[in-house]
Amino acid sequence: MRILSTISLAVLAAAAPVELVERQFGGGGGGSTSNELTQGSCKEVVFIFARGSGEPGNIGMIIGPPLISALKALVPNTAVQGVPYSAGIAGNLQRGGTDQASINTATQIFNQANTKCPDSIIIAGGYSQGAALMHRTIEKLPDNVKNKIAAVVTFGDTQNEEDKGTIPNFPPEKVKIFCNENDGVCGASLSVNAGHMSYSTSMKPAAQFLADGVNKAKQGGGASSGSSSGSSSDGSSGSPTGGPSGLGGLGGISGGGGLGGLSGSGGLSGLSGGLGGLRGGGLGGLMSGGRGGLGGLRGGS
């Protein structure tokens, strides 16, 4: 079987103490769940966000809260809705970077935004596997829903290489992909490192891109359809565009949750490539692996 995506490091932050995550990754101080569309009234803008693998709630902790805080400072009248998909590690191993059940869940959220709040402008975002979920969902939305999406931002995008920096069947000027130069997940080297979790400086530019999309939509320039062949990617990303990524040497994955070997207050230690020692209740033994992909998965937690 040809494997097109890699495992998200969001599970690391999900298992770490909240204070450590906020200290290291700028956790924004918000909660990990937001249901302002499904449980609230309609607002001018609906922001749909998909968290990374293993993150809590439906917006997670690494990207969701700080991005939402920055966005609401620019566009206060925004209803935030997290996608309540499973965000399991195994989803990354599916063709396209996530599973069909998750795509169905995200599709329902977009459709609900369109039917419940027909006058609202839709914007969207995703991190790691959540970024893949945005790709796979938006590309297949009906045109009447897709045309209402004014802007999309993704971070640590597992499908950046596979889709060549685009969301298929969606206008490239409405998409901005943030990929750190040392983020192996969206750089296709399959090196799992701190770069995949270090996007605090991207929050304000991402929020501004979303706000600009909203303003264009208000002026009548945000609703367009058609396929895209390019993307508006982050100028600081430095991530290459090329052929499909792969994932090799995978074995012995079962269960999820738990974390071992995470220490320090200034950053992550002991992270350099490769993911190992995953089974049952724990994730541990992150050792160097580099570009060779994902290998040496065996017991231990």
UniProtKB/TrEMBL annotation:
It is found in: Secreted. It is an enzyme of class 3 (hydrolase). The active site is at S128 (nucleophile), D183, H196 (proton donor/acceptor). Residues 1-15 form the signal peptide. It comes from the Eukaryota. Pfam families: Cutinase. Residues 240-251 have a biased composition (Gly residues). Belongs to the cutinase family. PANTHER family: CUTINASE 1-RELATED, CUTINASE 2-RELATED. This is Cutinase. It comes from Eremomyces bilateralis CBS 781.70. The lineage of its organism: Eukaryota, Fungi, Dikarya, Ascomycota, Pezizomycotina.
